[in-house]
Amino acid sequence: MVSPSSRPALSATASDPLQSPMWAMHRQRLFGDAPLVFDPALRLNTPELAENQHVFPVMVDARGLAGVQRIVIMADLNPIPVAVEFSPGFAAPWLALRIKLDQRTPVRAAALTGDGRWHVAGHWIDAAGGGCSAPPVSRARGDWAENLGKMRGAAFAGADGTRLRFAVRHPMDTGLVENIPAYHIETIAITAPGQEPARLKVWASVAEDPAFTLILPSGSGAVEVFARDTNGREFTGHVPPPAAP
């Protein structure tokens, strides 16, 4: 597992410490001329090696930064570089999910704070090819349509708040497989009464049957999950609060 404690602090300059051949283009396209710092206060934890390039686990923790408004998770050399954009709302600026990797690539997280500055962390991941260009398992089995949009989830009480985990059955087609057009979840909203929703913009580089873990404030109560895909289909789920001890 790669963690901030196991590698040097990233530079506070605009020069890419990972020396990615695609960073200059991605920076301009995603962040424009906004100020940007490579910041070890943003924690990005992943394995060092993608044992399965179709389901690569990523966790980003921006709780060490003040006033986080958005978090972007991306893989520089993927054909679909951005995986998610997370607006925390009432949730903590912390997110875990699984993405696809198409080759050896830097994986990064970027967090936008209220002062308009982007904070970036990342590291190289060794991965075999094909994470974005192979058909999903549900397509091979042929059961994707009958399970499309089914949700499951649970909430767990923890020392740092309520852990919300949920998953949506969906093939998350990238459009890079012959005769299978792009088709994926594109937006998710997590709501609770009286709270500002947490929102996710989702791209096809998120793993099949996307699963997410968030941290909500203790006592948030039941939450509703609303998802919409690129064909306009909408899916909903209800997650009760953690059981009383």
CATH architect. name = Sandwich
Shape: globular
What gyration radius follows from the Cα positions, in whole Å? 18 Å
Q: What does the largest sheet look like?
A: 9 strands, mixed
Helix fraction by DSSP (H/I, runs of at least 4): under 10%
Give an overview of the whole structure:
Mean pLDDT is about 90; it is low at about 5-15. The strands form two sheets. This protein has a nine-stranded mixed beta sheet, with no helix packed on it. Strands 2-3-6-13-10-9 form a six-stranded antiparallel beta sheet, with no helix packed on it. The longest helix is centred in the N-terminal third of the chain and has 9 residues, at about 25-30. It is mainly beta and about 240 residues long. The two termini are about 30 Å apart. The chain contains three helices and 15 strands. The chain has a single domain (about 5-240), classed as Immunoglobulin-like, CATH 2.60.40. Strand 11 and strand 12 form a beta hairpin.
